[in-house]
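Practice set, problem 2.
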Amino acid sequence: MGEQRKSFLEQVQSQIKSKEAKAFVSAELHHHLNEVKNYWLQKGISEEQADEKAVTQMGNPISIGRNLNRIHRPKVDWLTLALFVAALLLGFLPLLSQGYMTGNHFSMYKVIFVVLGGILAFGMMFIDYRKMANKGWIFYLLGTLLLLFLTRYFNTLVEGQAVLKIGSLKIEGLMAIPFFLMAWAGFFQSNRFKMWQFLLLFFLSSYFFLQFSLTTLLIYVAMTFTMIWWSKLNKKKIAIVLGVGFALVTAWGIIGWMTVAYYQKQRLLSFINPYNSEEYFGLSKVHHLFMDAGWFGKHSFVDQMIPQANTNFVFLSFILLRVAVCNNSFSSSFFSCC
């Protein structure tokens, strides 16, 4: 490479901030320079003169670099960012509806974890996940080790699920799903990944997830099957696997229905006929609260105790939110409903 060409490319790259764009720009400029150089070589001039003419013909390297920097400037996905911030803020609504935002340690924990989550998400924006495409086995191993560790060294049970609690931090099986998300993303983009490998790894990981909760397993299965449908594997084989999986789940459901306890059957049947529910806080009670709240709520629900208000009954908490906040002095002027 001639010194003039080298200097030209360095000046152009110095104006570009994106490291990834520098490589693409350099390759593109090399291609254009070679085209112009070949043109002048055909005119019968020397190679050195042709290279100089090609560089001169390209123009001012500083101006070119600035223009290319504007073109290749990383764009912020404002829609995704807005949805992410909205999701973080919505997490405070259940606490607000239950009156936990004033003088309660739950609010402090919520703020701390939201801030930490935001910092973590912001830091992950700078990670080039394409470089991890061939690290699927590492992520699969990390996820499996986390599940095995939790099944052996948990120190408390939350609603029957094994949880490792360290201070206010709770580590549960659901936290292993991101590792498997990265693992399957790496596996499915490889042309060498086979269906038998998928079946082996999927059933092995599903067994570990089943040790925690059925809900966690269903989330994992839905995630994996969605990813495999858009993978490079043969669609016919995928359809067969999904069909067999559905048949197995159906058979498991039928066998499970014949073996579960009476109260568990009643819980399932309550979704069909909520008014016959025998639960302490059944669907019939939830239905009455929804219907009686109307569009703007009623003050008679202010003292209503809702179990699992920030998880299972979070939507009900949102519906009754106006009632709760109307009794807080800091928000009465905003909602003007008290």
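Problem 2, part (b): a different protein.
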Amino acid sequence: MRITRTGGGHGRSAAVVTTTVLTASALLLTGCSSGDDSDTADANGNITLTLADYGQFGYKEAGLFAKYHELHPNITVKEETTANEQDYYPKLLQQLNTGSGLGDVTGIEVGRIKEVVDTQAAKFTDLSKAIKVDDWVSWKEKQATAKDGTVIGAGTDIGPMSLCYRKDLFEKAGLPTDREAVAKAVAGGWEDYLKLGEQYKKKAPSGTYFMDSASAMYNGVVSSSAQQYYDADGKANYKDSPSVQQGWNLAAEAADKKLTQGLPQFTDAWNAALRKGSVATVACPAWMAGQISTNSGDAYKGKWDISRAPGSTAANWGGSFLTVPKSGKHVKEATELVKWLTAPEQQAAVFKAIGVFPSNKGAYELADVKDAKLPYFNDAPIGQIYAEEAKTIPEAVLGPKDGVIKDTISTQINNMEQRGTKPADAWKAATETIDKALG
């Protein structure tokens, strides 16, 4: 999942973290040179690098393109952004197949990286010598590593899972409001989360629901497991996956017990529910805080808080990679740009600007991450919360159709919530659609 850019960053001030400000020297610490090569340039040696991405990567908002131009006066970075990744990815595949239209740097969503690694790796530059793979959380760069050891992508952000909740609604429902007490209440896992939801429902303020979407909870359950939709041999085994079965059963229970408002996330109805204040909890990867604060608005500032995710292992929901297609005219310069954008200082700057959490471990000790708090969420110490959650994220087995499987199951969970579809019928519809997609 990638945050959808809202007006070039407008309306996001509520989500900005507060920290100690990075010094200019810290921001400029990495990669201040770009060697000349035989790539084409204009008469004055100036070149433009195109970075193709989707949603909101945060580089513009953090001022990094302008900063890179200051460091490299002969290089201008032009960002070409597609609002939705679902539109971006088919276009990227078409460009890879035709060999034209690609950016010098291209973003790839984590849900797509396995398919690209398995089928398109030869078309991308090996970054293993440009970046230090061990600087990233261990499982992140493995996701972008081909069988021959080439690394086609440098990790940008990750989405360690937390739990966002409305303190005021919890208090009215007689539930604990302190973030440590909330974490303790769901420490046993997502089953405990549903139990907490049943307690909430007994005294729930009129017109409110414990969670926004059972499909979001489902994704949290599955994403906190090493075995999700594929086995270690690369075979799709979603029908027999324990995490899928657990997530599906919990989602069906939540729908049956009316613990959810049944709103697919990021829809107009979901936005409106946050604005009206009818949702008490949201499964909350790092980037979600910005979505909540933007849509909830000033009326609910300080009423939201953030606690650790249910269970002892955290989920990772989202995250992307920057890649360098071999067909580009400026491969060397593009590689240097990727190295710089994914270095700790720049990842920390992006985190401060839009709240997406770094995958480069070196950023965790920088003040803009370590000391980060979210004023909108009752000054929740998100730098500490997310860093701790990141340590417990399992190394998941990815498959080429992870995104298709997850989206199809989520659609059928929405049908259980909104249309009252019976779980058996919803599961049958999901598996039939998925099996056709798998071929």
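Answer key, part (b): The longest helix spans residues 402-419. The two ends are 25 Å apart (CA to CA).
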